Amino acid sequence: MHGDSVSSAGPDSAQDARPIVSARGLTKSFGPLAVLKGVDFDVLPSQVSVVIGPSGSGKSTLLRCCNGLETADGGTLDICGKRLADHGRRLPEKELNALRMHVGMVFQSFNLFPHLTVLGNVTIGPRRLRGMSAEAAEAAARRLLDKVGLAAKADAYPATLSGGQKQRVAIARALAMEPLVMLFDEPTSALDPELVGEVLQVMKDLAREGMTMMVVTHEMGFAREVGDVVSVMDHGVLLESGPPAQIFDAPRHPRTREFLQAVVTRDTARPREAPPRPMPPAIDDH
Ligand SMILES: Nc1ncnc2c1ncn2[C@@H]1O[C@H](COP(=O)(O)OP(=O)(O)O)[C@@H](O)[C@H]1O
Ligand SMILES: [Mg+2]
């Protein structure tokens, strides 16, 4: 999706590369509630960086800071070499919008435009924000829809799609902007269990192609298999980071052990056919 100099850099060659995402001492409060309490965080080119941790620990807020949906109160945040947040100051709106084009985001609830077809959803960004011609945007969109296995759904409306299909459209839409990094916020949490795999497969394919990814997920299998680095958040603090084997098999922090134990207990207690965890309805609210 992006230049060869980036996509050819595997995890090893990325050691010396400049991080795509770099946070130092990042803080964020909502009123009296401190949600990020000094987070240091790097994502190197082509890395798949997985963030896990209990609900309410600040994972979504961290992601939202990375594409400027939230502004950190303190610390610094550099994205693609640009200082997005600098001790409470953020980029002017124009620069922020330019930077956002390089940061793709996929949400739990898809957020597709219900009045546009699948093709319309995938072409609108490149046409409106990048000034691409209708023909070029459509050609690119069709390639992306083929890549996520939805070439046949180009003319369908989101309401006629399954959750897994909607989420794959959302991924294609984000990719259409040719982002340098993709942020995923629990992309499979709103899906029926049998639809999770098709979305994770698309994400795995992206990872294999060298896309830089920051993924908040409760899918521990994905984290272990696809993650280069797994980071554990708890109460606004990054408890520990490391290769999946270290985090899952030899966690250093007692709270990491507690969290992993709770997840394992939940997953083994949940029968395969059970309905998905209670979630707000997956509405394409625009
Ligand atoms: N816009 C907001 N206003 C007030 N509180 C918020 C807002 N966004 C998140 N929070 C609170 O911040 C905490 C962390 O939220 P979040 O980053 O969504 O955690 P996670 O994604 O790990 O579940 C939670 O207590 C949440 O209720
Ligand atoms: Mg969240």
Describe, in plain words, how this protein is organized in 3D:
The protein has 286 residues and is α/β, with parallel strands linked by helices. It has ten helices and eleven strands. Helix 4 crosses helix 5, helix 4 runs parallel beside helix 6 (163-175) and helix 5 crosses helix 6 (163-175). It is globular, with a radius of gyration of 18 Å. The chain starts with a helix and ends in a 17-residue tail after the last helix. 42% of the residues are buried. Bound molecules: adenosine-5'-diphosphate (ADP) and magnesium ion (MG). Adenosine-5'-diphosphate (ADP) is lined by residues 30, 33, 35, 53, 55-61.
Please render the helix and strand layout as text.
Blueprint: H1 4-7, E1 21-30, E2 33-43, E3 48-52, H2 59-66, E4 74-79, E5 82-86, E6 89-90, H3 93-100, E7 103-106, H4 118-130, H5 134-147, H6 163-175, E8 181-185, H7 193-208, E9 213-216, H8 220-226, E10 229-234, E11 237-242, H9 244-249, H10 254-269
Helix pairs in contact: 4-5, 4-6, 5-6, 6-7
Bound molecules: adenosine-5'-diphosphate and magnesium ion (MG).
Strand order of the biggest β-sheet: 7-8-9-3-10-11
- List the total number of helices: 10
Q: Output the helix-strand order.
A: HEEEHEEEHEHHHEHEHEEHH
Helix content: 25-40%
* Main structural class: alpha/beta
How many beta strands in the DSSP annotation?
11
Average pLDDT score? 90
Main beta sheet: strand number and arrangement?
A: 6 strands, mixed
Quaternary organization: single chain
> Which small-molecule ligands are present, each listed once?
adenosine-5'-diphosphate, magnesium ion
Per the principal axes of the C-alpha atoms, what is the gross shape? Answer: globular
- Radius of gyration over alpha carbons? 18 Å
Uncertain regions: pLDDT < 50 for 5+ in a row? 1-14, 272-276, 278-286
